[in-house]
Automatic annotation (TrEMBL):
Entry-linked InterPro entries: CarboxyPept-like_regulatory, CARBOXYPEPT_ZN_1, FA58C, Galactose-bd-like_sf, Peptidase_M14, Peptidase_M14_domain
GO terms for MF: calmodulin binding; DNA-binding transcription repressor activity, RNA polymerase II-specific; metallocarboxypeptidase activity; RNA polymerase II transcription regulatory region sequence-specific DNA binding; zinc ion binding
PANTHER family, per database record: ADIPOCYTE ENHANCER-BINDING PROTEIN 1, PROTEASE M14 CARBOXYPEPTIDASE
Main location: secreted
Family membership noted in the UniProt record: Belongs to the peptidase M14 family.
Organism the protein comes from: Cyprinus carpio
Domain of life: Eukaryota
Keyword Signal: yes
The protein's name in its UniProt record: Adipocyte enhancer-binding protein 1
Annotated compartments: Secreted
GO terms of biological process kind: peptide metabolic process; protein processing
SMART domains reported in the protein's UniProt record: FA58C (SM00231), Zn_pept (SM00631)
Domain Peptidase M14, first and last residues per copy: 212-532
GO CC, one annotated term: extracellular space
Length: 649
């Protein structure tokens, strides 16, 4: 297995190997095993062993497919496993901990912005005791697998026949630059009813759902079938079209679909902002099925949630990007394939930057007396047709402004944690804390703590050390700040509180993982939805009982107000406590009352009846005097004059 021997292999051997791959793929497509979990981190660090390490930051723990390097050269987070260049024999070994039917390997080069390091050929060996090894043979000689030709594109090598063993070892033979590798191993645990390891990792099938990946047409068909199965509680509709003309589909689930009910909050889950983050898309499709089936079966929890909430689910915000990623498949797309829209936008951070507008006004002491602390207007020209805002983003913004959403979350991938705003951070400035930080932290914890694995951070994060301190939640500006995020825009421009839920290390998990992921996320998805009923709610009316729209509801001590909807109703998410709440509307006198939020489920009713004010008349009098300050005596003189004019004598 020396490099001189490998270089002597001629092109006829390469052609033979390619043909054998094609035959094996055709003959064993049904037996093609899923990933063991290098990318998803189900394979733990202590299951990996290497012959040598170039530097500490390029250890065996960095050999995971699609792992991303840190920009800090002094930390432990390099972009691959890299061997010591002085060593002549190099290998990386995986202990599956049980007999496993190995069927293939996926390799990838080192993640690095400058260097181009990757393995171009390698042998594969197997063992049952990690001492005696057998190199895989193709019938003529030891089988040389041809690996990567660039550092980013994953390359699959499939074995002609499955190999049963406990240990697998990859032995790189030729490479470009430094010998560096990222990888995934494909295999199926051999059934063993006495194996405690297998029973602990077995996922029980509980809900009768469609646990498959769906392309665009399959998704459309499934959503239509759900609407047909539950027509009384569902509405299948579209937010608009993508750049390539695909519909951005949504499903409404409510006891009165198609209409807003006064006093009923509206909730949203969105997914697929980045087309290659397919797990969120499939989870929302499963959630639709679950709500439909459980409502029909009389599940009291689901019935209460659907009857008391108007739920909107958007599984694929970026259908164009997903089509690209879907064509490659769950393991063979790169970290970025399908991430952006067809015309190159990252939808999630494509919203108008309202943070700097508010923060500049705050620094000048203009908030809230001169500049509003909520519903910050979009600057003129930002939404012009110069291509800076994606058509998908415009569709989302129109949808957000046309519904009185109270709470929402966007499902993403590549990490396993929940982030809360602000997402943006000014360069060289301290992080700006959001007014509702304690509430946002609670909302984030409500998901992370009920997810099966999100707070199990003993192995660190997906790409670096755990940024959450074991909590499963982090402020986005502290972790990875970005401008123009949907979360910041939603908080500053609408009434809706929005968070980001990162579902796992593997953006596009294998189809066999979908059952497990549904079990991990189901309770968290339901629990987070129920938080929309936290805090206070009510209706703002005049003394005749007419609803007042666009009234402002403010909470003492929290410099962020909300507005009433067209029906005069409002919802203000709050943690338990006593609050002095004030309702204001133009032409009415403000009114303040004490509202108490308890620990029991359900929002506290806190409605307001406002009296007409004399402010309109006062403004008329001021206009007569050129809007200059006037004395009270002049106001009284005008009142006497009006009374005299109205007198019949």
């Amino acid at each position: 297995m020396q490099q001189t021997y490998i270089r002597a292999l001629n092109s006829s051997h390469r052609s033979y190997q390619t043909n054998m791959f094609l035959k094996a793929k055709s003959r064993h497509s049904v037996q093609f095993c899923p990933p063991l979990g290098m990318e998803s981190h189900r394979i733990e660090n202590d299951q990996l062993l290497t012959s040598s390490v170039y530097q500490h930051r390029y250890g065996s723990h960095r050999a995971r497919l699609n792992i991303q390097a840190s920009g800090d050269e002094d930390d432990m987070n390099g972009g691959a496993w890299c061997a010591n260049p002085e060593e002549k024999i190099n290998w990386i070994e995986l202990d599956a901990r049980t007999l496993t039917e190995f069927t293939g390997i996926i390799t990838q080069g080192r993640d690095d912005p400058i260097e181009s390091d990757y393995v171009s050929s390698y042998y594969v060996a197997f063992s049952n005791d990690s001492r005696e090894w057998t190199v895989l043979h193709d019938g003529y000689a030891e089988w040389l697998f041809f690996g990567n030709s660039d550092k980013n594109t994953p390359v699959l090598s499939q074995f002609m026949e499955p190999v049963v063993a406990r240990y697998i070892r990859i032995l790189p033979q030729t490479w470009n630059g430094t010998m560096c590798m990222r990888m995934e191993v494909l295999g199926c645990p051999v059934p063993d009813h006495l194996s405690q390891y297998q029973s602990q990792n077995e996922v029980m099938h509980r809900d009768d759902l469609d646990y498959t990946h769906h392309n665009y047409l399959d998704m459309e068909k499934l959503m239509k079938s759900i609407s047909d199965e539950c027509p009384n509680i569902s509405r299948f509709y579209s937010l608009g079209k993508s750049f390539k003309g695909l519909e951005i589909y949504a499903m409404e689930i409510s006891d009165n679909p198609g209409m807003h009910e006064t006093g009923e909050p509206e909730f949203r889950y969105t997914a697929g902002y980045h087309g290659n983050e397919a797990l969120g898309r499939e989870l929302l499709l499963m959630l639709m099925q679950y709500l439909c089936k459980e409502y029909k079966d009389g599940n009291p929890r689901v019935r209460h949630l659907v009857d008391e909430t108007r739920i909107h689910l958007v599984p694929s915000v970026n259908p164009d990007g997903h089509m690209k990623a879907f064509e490659k498949g769950s393991e063979l797309g790169s970290w970025t394939l399908g991430h952006w829209t067809e015309d190159g936008h990252d939808i999630f951070q494509n919203f108008p930057d309202l943070n700097n507008i508010l923060w500049d006004a705050e620094d000048k002491g203009m908030v809230p007396k001169l500049i509003s602390n909520h519903h910050v207007p979009i600057p003129e020209g930002v939404l012009s047709s110069n291509g800076s805002v994606a058509v998908e983003t415009l569709a989302l913004m129109s949808w957000m402004e046309s519904h009185p959403f109270v709470l929402g979350a966007n499902l993403q991938g590549g990490e396993r944690l929940v982030t809360y705003p602000f997402d943006m951070r000014e360069p060289e400035e301290e992080i700006r804390m959001i007014e509702d930080q304690s509430l946002f932290r609670w909302l984030a914890i409500s998901y992370a703590s009920t997810h099966h694995t999100m707070t199990q951070t003993h192995q660190g994060g997906c790409h670096t050390d755990d940024p959450t301190g074991g909590m499963g939640i982090v402020n986005r500006a502290k972790w990875k700040p970005i401008p123009g995020s949907m979360n910041d825009f939603s908080y500053l421009h609408t009434n809706c509180f929005e968070l980001s839920i990162f579902l796992g290390c593997d953006k596009f998990p294998h189809q066999s993982e979908l059952i497990r992921e549904w079990e991990h996320n189901r309770e968290a998805l339901l629990t987070f939805m129920a938080q929309v009923h936290r805090g206070i709610k009510g209706v703002v009316r005049d003394k005749e009982g007419n609803p007042i729209s666009n009234a402002t509801v403010s909470v003492e001590g929290i410099n962020h107000d909300i507005r009433t909807g067209e029906s005069g109703d409002y919802w203000r998410l709050l943690n338990p406590g006593e609050y002095r709440v004030t309702a204001r509307a133009e032409g009415y006198s403000p009114f303040t009352r004490l509202c108490v939020v308890g620990f029991d489920p359900g929002a506290t009713y806190c409605s307001f009846d406002l009296n007409k004010s004399n402010w309109d008349r006062i403004k008329q009098i001021m206009a007569l005097h050129g809007n200059r300050p006037i004395r009270l005596r002049q106001v009284l003189r005008h009142r006497v004059y009006r009374v005299a004019q109205a007198s019949p004598y």
